[in-house]
Amino acid sequence: AWSQRWVESKHKPDYGRFVLTAGKFYGDAEKDKGIRTSQDARFYALSSRFEPFSNRGKTLVVQFTVKHEQNIDCGGGYVKLFPASLSQEDMHGDSEYNIMFG
Fold first, then answer.
1. How many CB atoms lie within 10 A of CB 22?
2. pTM of the model
3. For 30, how many CA atoms within 13 A lie in the half-sphere containing its CB?
4. Lower CB density within 10 Å: C or N end of the chain?
């Protein structure tokens, strides 16, 4: 299950919660499921570890897809790649990161 792979930060008690859903628009209700924010006007903090790797001599490509379905005035989504030393349950906006985009 996605909730076993991903860790929601507990740094702040008012972070929004994630849910698994295909959303409002999809081709296949099961195949198109993804992690979605569930509350408006909230900050979110979710992380997952991956196995160490090296791209020495190779191009590194990091990609993600965002589907904004909410009617909000201001918002955004981005990805940060953190060092392995990150405390996932204490992750927050000032946590050290190596790459950020979105």
1. 16
2. 0.81
3. 0
4. N
- The shares of helix, strand and coil residues in the chain, as percent rounded to the nearest 5, are 5, 20, 75
Cα angle 69, 70, 73; round to 5: 130
Q: Are 36 and 19 in contact (CB under 8 A)?
A: yes
Which residue type is seen at 26?
Y
Compute the distance between CA of residue 11 and CA of residue 9 in angstroms, rounded to an integer: 6
Placement of tokens 């060092």 in the chain: 83
On whether the CB atoms of residues 22 and 33 are closer than 8 A, the answer is yes
Interatomic CA distance for residues 42 and 40, integer angstroms: 6
Task: Tell me which CATH code domain 1-101 carries.
Answer: 2.60.120.200
N residues, the chain = 102
Predicted confidence (pLDDT) at residue 32 exceeds the cutoff of 90: yes
Would you state the structure tokens that stand for residue 21, as one six-digit string? 């859903």
Task: Check pLDDT > 80 for residue 76.
Answer: no
Q: Are 73 and 48 in contact (CB under 8 A)?
A: no
